[in-house]
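At your convenience, could you comment on the folded chain following this short note?
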Amino acid sequence: MFKLKGSLLISGDKSISHRALILSAMSIGKTRISNLLESDDVIRTLNILQNLGIKIIKNKKEWIVFGNGTNGFIEPDRALNCGNSGTTARLMIGAVSSNPINCTFVGDNSLSKRSMSRVTLHLEKIGANVQLTNKDYLPLMISGTDQLLPMTHKIQKASAQVKSALILAALNIHGKTRIIENVLTRDHTERLLKFLGVKVNIKKINNIRNEIELNGPIEIKSKNIEVAGDPSSASFFVVGALITPNSKIILKNIMLNPSRIAFLKILKKMGGKIKIKKTKKICGEEVGNITAEYSKLKGIKIPSSSSAFLIDEYPILSIAASQAKGKTVMKGLNELRYKESDRIRSIIYNFKNLGIDVHEKNNNLSINGKKLELEKSIKIKSFDDHRIAMSFSILNILCQNKLKIDNQKCIAISYPDFKKHLKFLLKKSNA
């Protein structure tokens, strides 16, 4: 048997790494970025920015970006390949839309099945010319212009990516752009802009809606950026410690943005022994350490109102639910259908193979906890989804390596050091 023990410095946050690169490219001057996550997704963003005429070099552990300003992209001589990264595609489509250039965006098979019209419908209304495959998918061609119209956008479906795309477009639009989101979403773009000295007016309406206002065009002066540790990456080891007897870990330098640590509140409600200690503020984000130790978890109900803040963590929360006493019900998981895989289907398929009682109705998932005692190896299908692969890698600790997970290479999409970090924390248990 194994347990998780020790302290670990988690890799840089994926969401902030994308935004750090893009906003540095849209700044005037030289930016040094430290602790950038060098995952496949983030490197896609970096390569696309280079194809748009941005000079980016690595110097030891830092990445140096030579910004060209908010109107500084040049027309690329090739298609811009987003790979598997929805963040890259949606944010970069927004960023180039207010530059007078023509771009073609492509992606892999998985990304080419994910909706892009949620972004492009807004951009078309303000003057960008967009051609989508089957009216919704990549490949996509966009003709941008520096004459886009300032207007008010109402985002109906909660999406930090759509919001961020519109903010990036607004940086080079003459006049006031307003973005109203009916459900609050992650605010990394707004926080990073404020750190960079950009005036972003944010008004909360009834504590459930946000109105964001920018008055462009805006000149951003470069400022060095440090990327805090990724809480979504930390979530795998937190759950691993909670479900594995005799485990106790400390994860350091984790970004503690309230919109990113909702999973910790959920795990605490399940009975998880978790402590959070804030230590400092980095580039507009609270940062600190998370301590987690083995706990006897119990099933709970997770309301649909939490879903916007748990999208990336539902796969690993489902692992926690599978080892909790009683039934866990997760409501309002619609968005999980449109991630790197249909994550509801991916979770159900693998749990049924393991004999775990799981049911789905109207995008609500119910999981009955069960102690696993496997007599033989079981194949786990990742569906080429990095979060599914990592989640079942954590369950594999309890299963004494009897889970045979296909395509673990996809983990590099978001967390290339996952296996190394897991190996570092794994210790033989005397129990």
Remarks:
- The radius of gyration is 21 Å.
- The longest strand covers residues 273-282.
- DSSP finds twelve helices and 24 strands in the chain.
